[in-house]
Design goal:
With about 260 residues, the chain is an alpha/beta fold. The chain is built from eleven helices and nine strands. It has a single domain, classed as Rossmann fold (3-Layer(aba) Sandwich). α6 packs across α7. InterPro entries: AB_hydrolase_1, AB_hydrolase_fold, Sec-Metab_Biosynth_Hydrolase.
């Protein structure tokens, strides 16, 4: 009899545990949007941490053709996801997610990783020059003229390491330089629409050695957006998510739980 009672008690404990687990809300999907001169592989280190912690991930291939059109593409991806979403943008990708989040009730948080958080009417070029410190302009290669009109911009490969990813090993920076995705010149000069950070909570992280977007500009945008939490990584370049994936992943997780 005692054995039977003990077995029933154990079964009750197991059932209670299963019910508690079932009642836990599903973790939000993390949608990662890379910026100019980068690609989805720039999120690899962050993805490994988030996936280990049980988060579903979508690393979107940002077209880098124009703020409105790129935002429309990311918006379509968000629309296909039925769970809550945390939208994460790097660099120019910040401008994209600021617009893409609009109209989606399932977007619960925005995370800006060395990223633009523009006000309506602002451009990436304008925000880059708002404060001194960017050295991007002289490192750009001669524009590639597109047959359909407009131009594509790249960073000169021999200047990529120092400009974009100074704290990374040279071999890694060379690979990133060779595989960089171009952005259209018009995209960097396109005025942004109404920003979602005005009605969706935001989190910011950036390095204090960013040579693309001046840290002072990043701090200004974080404060203006009333950032829920702002992390400054000492010694980190523009690709803080590559060199320091741990703090970036932890900030994304904080945004996912609203802390």
């Amino acid at each position: 009899m005692n054995k039977l009672l003990a077995a029933l008690a154990m079964a009750g404990v197991l059932l209670s545990g299963l019910q508690a687990h079932a009642q836990q809300p599903a973790k939000p999907t993390i949608v990662l949007v890379h910026g100019a001169f980068a690609d989805t592989s720039s999120w690899n280190g962050v993805i490994k941490i988030l996936e280990k912690d049980g988060y579903p991930i979508v690393a979107a291939a940002n077209p880098l053709r124009g703020v409105a059109s790129d935002a429309g593409y990311i918006s379509d991806i968000v629309n296909s996801i039925k769970s809550p979403v945390v939208l994460v943008g790097h660099s120019y990708g910040g401008s994209v997610v600021s617009s893409a989040a609009n109209g989606h009730d399932n977007v619960k948080a925005l995370v800006y990783v060395s990223a633009f958080a523009p006000e309506a009417g602002e451009t990436a070029v304008g925000l880059t020059g708002k404060f001194p410190g960017s050295t991007l302009g002289p490192t750009l290669a001669p524009p590639v003229k597109l047959s359909g009109g407009g131009t594509d911009l790249y960073i000169q490969q021999d200047k990529f390491h120092e400009q974009f990813a100074a704290e990374l090993p040279e071999v890694d920076a060379k690979l990133m330089a060779a595989t960089q995705r171009p952005v259209t010149e018009s995209a960097l000069n396109e005025a942004s629409g109404d920003p979602a950070w005005k009605h969706i909570s935001s989190w910011f992280i950036y390095g204090d050695k960013d040579k693309n977007i001046p840290p002072q500009s990043l701090a200004f945008m974080a404060e203006r957006a009333h950032s829920h939490q702002t992390v400054v990584v000492k010694g980190a370049s523009h690709v803080v998510m590559v060199s320091n994936p741990e703090p970036v992943a932890r900030l994304i997780e904080s945004a996912a739980v609203g802390k």
